[in-house]
Amino acid sequence: MELFMQSGDTSASKMPQWDVAYLDTLGYDSLTELMRAIILRCVDDFHNKAEFKQEALTYMEDQDEEYIFSFRAICLHLGLDPNKTKDAIIYANQRISTRRRAA
Predict the structure, then answer these.
(1) Which residues of the chain have pLDDT under 50?
(2) Which residues, at least 6 apart from 101, have a Cβ–Cβ distance to it below 8 Å?
(3) What is the model's pTM?
(4) Element at 58 (helix H, strand E)
(5) Helix (H) / strand (E) containing 34
(6) Alpha-carbon distance 55 to 42, whole Å?
(7) β partners of residue 5
(8) How far apart are CA 76 and CA 5, in angstroms?
């Protein structure tokens, strides 16, 4: 989970592989799961749906932190650096899996 954290060096070539709905063994958090799903939908739209690519890019570039479901607000809630996460999505060297694995 150290990738894209706000502190320390990070690599923009890999996305973290962890289930953020179960952060810190506190149990399932439905808000966090919804936020995770929004980010994964953005990734899917940017890389797989040409007609939504510009909208996904606009969403990621929005600087709004007040709206709870803005890209920046979600990243900050999840402990991710919004700029590094955006760069990792845009410049991914390999396909980013947006499919949820069974628990």
Answers:
(1) 1-13
(2) 19
(3) 0.69
(4) helix 53-61
(5) helix 30-48
(6) 9
(7) 80
(8) 9
